[in-house]
Design a protein that fits this description.
Two copies of one chain form a homodimer. Chain A is α/β, with parallel strands linked by helices. Helices cover 50% and strands 10% of the residues of chain A. The first copy, chain A, has a six-stranded parallel β-sheet, sandwiched between helices. The longest helix of chain A is centred in the middle third of the chain and has 20 residues. Chain A is globular and about 70 Å long.
């Protein structure tokens, strides 16, 4: 499906289901509003699914992996080879995302969408390789617009397939040495911030490394002149294959009317691009956590999303999104299982102040 | 067991297990520290259990219910009868805590430690009634010191029994119309704050109700002159039976070396009393969430505990504590299941900045 057809299929979420959910919650045996953001989440999910009763399982985390030409500029604490090594680790089930996905009963879908080198993946890794890593975004466009469209299409196709198989919630994950540099450049463009304000330490670079990384982001912006008014071109210029793939995941989930749970800084950058392309996609986003990466706050602000928690995570892979799953389940269970004042014979407010 | 014997059994948590856990985490396939507060939680739990491998199940939430004489002063939006009605709702499985405890695979232990009236409870409700509700704390002591000791002893005995049955994590819950007034008075005493700074809307009182509630807390403090230097007397003077019972739960859990997960404002007030009686009990506390009640921030500050999340909850019952359970599980799973750089053949930092 081409991008224009995909975005044309995204409809706003259901405000009537949202209102019905709030009424249902107000009749439950608790002071009105006392479950705070869990109630907000229940309302949001009901509006996504168009029903006060909705399922938050089965679910899947889609981990898109890709390499970045900019890694040669010394912007990461780890060598580029770690991307492919971690894909093997994902396939073997030993990474943090595997552990947390198992805990949260989510399927892990590992996608090579642009890993460098010739890789002999195990069968569980999907090969959707657009190219063997991007070009150095500080020297020119990271990829072509044709490649960006291909990555978006691949992401959307994976979601469509998962939904056909019954998946009701999609979580976004990623792996790619150098990808906080691309995410910083995209956040600078789409949240309209200076490079220095949205560039952080990523995997843990030192002070000289951080200064170098900021300079690289500034060069990327100066060289490519990306603009939020041409989002696809901006994504191609300073993005990454996994980020473009996640743009497709987000647009695909919105088109399929399933909730898409964002992880941290990288997936937040993908969300910024996605909602700029198709603003109605925002209705389908759930922000799980606020990352320790400074740019994530700016991205969430521009998305007008309030994350559910802040645990100082900065690992990516989809780990933060996994930790939000029990909250989605809990919000649904409250709606389905809790007694009402009437059914339980509990008195309402006495009006006594 | 008397209180002095109980507190004498509480030992500091195991700093060697904590250090071993941090080393283990640093060898896992992720940038050091990148799982943020999940790593901190893993370290804390290992220090509680004295082992890098620990179980966070089976678990139980102890919901202590009691009435408050001060309810007659119009400090709650709900009539006093709601306490007993909600105990029936707990027994029938229809309250928020039942729904969330089921989600989190926790056993719900419902305890009448001081509900007013003659109640015909179903068999699942434990009857540990110290008295049929406290006296009005704004007119004199809420209970006697003998009663406070009895309630603490009952809470500690329940934990000891649960631990004998295999429970490895205890969560604190409560129900009692009027109990945010008692918790505000205790927080004022033990966190050394003015009544107005720690008194909130509880179940949702209006502005005149809030002004009245603050005045009632001020009267309670003026009349009883409670002091943190005599914590048991202060608890008796301005506490509640469920709060005293929870002091026992906390001290009992610490004595048994199991983690005790705090819920919101009421259980935070109980924790303040418990750690004033036995400072080493603090090592066993996990703060789940920051409540919307303003006094909870002061209580957590005085406890030097940083909650895991803030979802604007203000329901109590143990609901926030339940939402923390998947984080405890996740922290343990990361330690047990994640690959190391060595085992997965993943390169460490390149040192390239």
């Amino acid at each position: 499906m081409d991008l224009e057809t995909l975005t044309s299929r995204i409809e706003p979420a259901d405000t009537r289901a949202a209102a019905a959910t709030q009424r249902l919650l107000d009749g439950k045996t608790k002071p009105p509003g006392s479950l705070g953001r869990l109630e907000e989440l229940a309302v949001r999910l009901a509006s996504i699914y168009g029903d006060t009763r909705y399922a938050t399982a089965p679910r899947a985390v889609i981990v898109m992996a890709a390499d970045h030409g900019v890694a040669c500029r010394g912007v990461s604490a780890y060598p580029q080879a770690v991307t492919a090594q971690m894909v093997h680790n994902f396939a073997a089930g030993g990474a943090a995302i595997n552990v947390l996905a198992r805990q949260m009963a989510a399927r892990t879908v590992i996608v090579d969408i642009g890993v460098a080198g010739t890789n002999d993946w195990p069968g569980s890794v999907r090969r959707c390789t657009v190219a063997a890593g991007t070009a150095d975004l500080s020297a020119g466009p990271a990829m072509s617009v044709v490649e960006a469209r291909a990555a978006i299409g691949a992401g959307a196709a994976i979601v469509a397939e998962l939904v056909r198989e019954g998946v009701r919630v999609v979580a976004t994950g990623e792996m790619g040495i150098g990808n906080t540099t691309a995410a910083a450049a995209l956040t600078a463009v789409f949240a309209a911030r200076a490079a220095a304000a949205v560039t952080g330490r990523g995997t843990g670079i030192d002070d000289p490394g951080l200064a170098r990384k900021i300079a690289v982001v500034e060069q990327a912006l100066a060289r490519n002149r990306p603009s939020a008014e041409r989002p696809l071109e901006a994504l191609a210029a300073v993005g990454g294959f996994e980020i473009a793939g996640l743009v497709g995941v987000i647009l695909g989930a919105a088109a399929e009317r399933v909730a898409v749970v964002l992880d941290g800084f990288i997936t937040g950058a993908a969300a910024l691009v996605a909602v700029t392309i198709a603003p109605q996609a925002r209705d389908y986003l759930i922000a799980s956590h606020r990352s320790a990466e400074p740019g994530h706050r700016a991205a969430l602000g521009a998305l007008a999303l309030d994350p559910l928690f802040d645990l100082g995570l900065r690992l990516g892979e989809g780990t933060g999104a996994m930790l939000a799953m029990p909250l989605l389940d809990a919000a649904g269970a409250i709606l389905r299982e809790m007694a009402s004042f009437e059914s339980a014979g509990v008195s309402g407010p006495s009006g006594g102040g």
